[in-house]
Amino acid sequence: MHFPFFGYFDYLTTITKKGQDYDSVPILASNMIIDLSKNRFEGHIPSIIGDLVGLCTLNLSHNVLEGHIPVSLQNLSVLESLYLLPNKISGGIPQQLASLTFLEVLNLSHNHLVGCIPRGKQFDTFENSSYQGNDGLRGLPPSRYCGRDDRVPQATIPVEQDQRRRRRRR
């Protein structure tokens, strides 16, 4: 994918967003929303998108994108919404994306993602629907265990039932 229209102005400003000051932010690069959904774009998500540090919303949904989620998206420190549904994106979700503390909305559903869902911070708050249609994903919040083996952890046994079992063994 090629984005020739990403220019860069020399006008700088200080922006306070959610209690955090950002000095010398280029005006064009701050509070930016990119919605390129439903365009039938093909190819990989360019890692240069990670250079758009003022990006608040990235919507690349309903295209035919493939390849991996670029690790460079970790640089989008003010990103609030990320929509990559449905495409043909494969590989894992980069653990580095767990550092995106402003991320409130995530939808990676209906791709070909595999591996463990990152843990920590915002990723612990997203609903199962953010990941549905990616049969290779495991971890929380989806109900598949992510650890040394792929077994689902067994349900806890009520205390009374556990005590009865122990008495029988004696």
From TrEMBL:
Q: Record keywords: Protein transport included?
A: no
Chain spans, region Disordered: 149-170
Record lineage:
Eukaryota, Viridiplantae, Streptophyta, Embryophyta, Tracheophyta
Q: What is this protein called?
A: Uncharacterized protein
Q: Which family does it belong to?
A: Belongs to the RLP family.
CC annotations in GO: plasma membrane
Q: What is its main location?
A: membrane
Q: Where in the cell is it found?
A: Cell membrane
UniProtKB keywords = Cell membrane, Glycoprotein, Leucine-rich repeat, Membrane, Receptor, Repeat, Transmembrane, Transmembrane helix
Topology class, membrane: Single-pass type I membrane protein
